[in-house]
Amino acid sequence: QYDKAIEHHEKALKINLDIFGTNHSDVANSYHNLGNSYYNNKQYDKAIENYEKALKYGLDDAKPTQIRVARLYNIAGVLYDVNKQHDKAIEYHEKALKIKLDIFGTNHSDVAWSYDDLGDSYRNNKQHDKAIEHYEKALKIEKELFRDTYRLVGDSNWKLGVSFEHKKEMKTALKYYEEAYKIYSKVLGESHAETIRAKTKVSEMEG
Question: Residue 177 belongs to what H/E stretch?
Answer without folding.
Answer: helix 170-188
